[in-house]
Amino acid sequence: MNLRLAGLQSDSIVDGPGIRLAIYLQGCPHHCPGCHNPETHDPAGGWPVASGELLEIIDRHSRENGSFTIDGVTLSGGEPFEQAPVLALLVGEITKRGLNLVVYSGYTFEQLLQRSNYDRNTLYLLEASWLLIDGPFVREEKDLSLSYRGSRNQRLIDLSRSLAAGEALEWVGGYEFSDQSWIAG
Ligand code: SF4
Predict the structure, then answer these.
(1) Which atom of ligand 1 is nearest to the CA of 31?
(2) Ligand 1 pocket residue status of 134, Cβ below 6 Å
(3) Which residue is closest in CA terms to ligand 1's atom 3?
(4) Distance (Å) from CA 185 to ligand 1 centroid
(5) pLDDT in tens, the chain (185 residues)
(6) What are phi and psi of 135, to 5 degrees?
(7) DSSP secondary structure string, 73-87?
(8) Domain at 2-184, CATH from 2.140.10.10, 1.10.3430.10, 3.20.20.70, 3.40.1440.60
(9) Atom 8 of ligand 1: nearest residue by CA position
């Protein structure tokens, strides 16, 4: 199955904690006023890539002498959850490699949780990911001092705690890097 991509950024330090490979998915239904990436909105734009080919790209961008040189992979956009059926096939392979997952969405955690009641791909994507950076970009809430997000309404949500609690719990940091992965400190 194919995904549509808008771009890739290796060694990113602005798309979540640590050093990350950022994958920008093509297609977004939110049309937030002031969006910095309007070229990602058209679901027919970008270019197609097979999920297996994307795994090869992840390995190529992130391995050096057999070891991973990044902390994790970020799924951004566009709107990643519009391509949840294909991403759901891929995320297990990414986490199996010891890479953590950060996912961005213009939907809120509460909207995605509701959607996950009838869409198991959405649930699978949430369960496989470490952090969700949620909500639309709101121009009136724009704040350039924020880490990893553009407006104050957007939250960094710790997904394993939030899914267990059934409510959005924000990430409070306190993670440290191990040889294997980012672990709770
Ligand atoms: S969700 Fe993101 S990509 Fe989509 S319109 Fe809003 S800011 Fe742009």
Answers:
(1) 5
(2) no
(3) 78
(4) 32
(5) 899 999 999 999 999 999 999 999 999 999 999 999 999 999 999 999 999 999 999 988 777 766 678 999 999 999 999 999 999 999 999 999 989 999 999 999 999 999 999 999 999 999 999 999 999 999 999 999 999 999 999 999 999 999 999 999 999 875 544 443 444 43
(6) 95, 160
(7) EEEESS-GGGGHHHH
(8) 3.20.20.70
(9) 35
